[in-house]
Amino acid sequence: MESVPDDGQTVRMATVPKVQTGGTVRPVAFSEFHPDNIDAVLRAARFVRLDIAGIDFLTPDPAKSWREAGGAITEVNAVPQINRLETFDVFSAVLDQLLPEGGRLPAVLLIDDTDDPGFVAQIVGEAQNDKADPGVLVTNPARADRWESAISGCTAIGDGQAVLRDPCVGSVLAVQSLPDILANGYALDRFDLIAVRGIADPASAGQLLGAPFRPMFDQADVVTLEADNAAESFGELAGDRLQRVADEREMAKTLLACLKSGKV
Asked: Which residues contact 5 (CB under 8 A, 6 or more apart)?
């Protein structure tokens, strides 16, 4: 109490810089960091095998290299409190980095009235070999139960929640019959590609031209077999985004390309 600091003099009140003990937090842009300092914290995270880490890096001047100004990493937090202060929107930055495509998985809808799992099993097997980690979304429970043992290599098979909540699923192949779509709607709200195979009643495909079914085709590409009697109706839906292929092998290749990258 007998000491009076000079004007402009800095007095260290505590040896541990913490917000809880009166420290002040301010954001520091990447442009304010010397590349050596950024490299140091990135290497620290890689060294302990962390994708997200809170790294305490102490230095008197972040704009200078730690080799020149001095500095040290004092702690690496595996579960950092990244948004403890409301003034920094760290969550959004992390999510944008981890989910550059908005978190959507590549999704294909196969409209198929047949009850033969062979075509789907072929696609799943090849997708698994290409590390697409497919999940098969089947809205008909009876069909899902019958097909589960026939489709080997599938990351997950079942209804929407069972497939979409599985963190190992990297792409989604939804299989629905046309009557199921007309009665209950689509399995997902958006698909990158819609494939048509084995429509039992081609005339009923025209019902997809009306609300609320048509908007699904406004952005998705559509692939049909050249010999499919329902191709004309789907051509009206997709316009120049309709692709007709000669056989099921060509159709399978198109579906695989979408499952692998989200693009046809």
From this structure: 11
Helix 248-261 vs helix 118-129: crossing angle, to nearest 10:
40
Residues 220 and 192 sit within 8 Å (Cβ to Cβ)? yes
All structural domains of the chain: 1-101 (3.30.470.20), 107-261 (3.40.50)
Neighbour tally for 162: CB within 10 Å = 15
Six token digits for residue 174: 């939804």
3-class DSSP assignment, residue 120: helix
CA 42 to chain centre: 24
Give the pair of three-digit tokens for residue 214. Answer: 């048509």
How far apart CA 130 and CA 210 sit, in angstroms, is: 37
For residues 215 and 79, give the distance between their C-alpha atoms in angstroms, rounded to a whole number: 42
pTM of the predicted structure, to 2 decimals: 0.67
Task: Write the DSSP assignment of 42-85 as a string of letters.
Answer: HHHHHHTT-SS-EEEEE-S-TTS-HHHH--EEEEEESS--TTSS
Q: Which of 253, 246, 241 is nearest to 227 (CA)?
A: 246
pLDDT tens-digit profile of 157-210?
776 777 888 888 888 999 999 999 999 899 999 999 999 988 888 888 888 878
Number of residues written out for the chain: 264
**What gap in Å lies between CA 202 and CA 212, rounded to an integer?**
19
Compute the distance between CA of residue 198 and CA of residue 110 in angstroms, rounded to an integer. 10
CA distance 103 to 89: 18
Structure tokens at 63: 């704009």
Closest CA to 144 of 156, 128, 132: 156
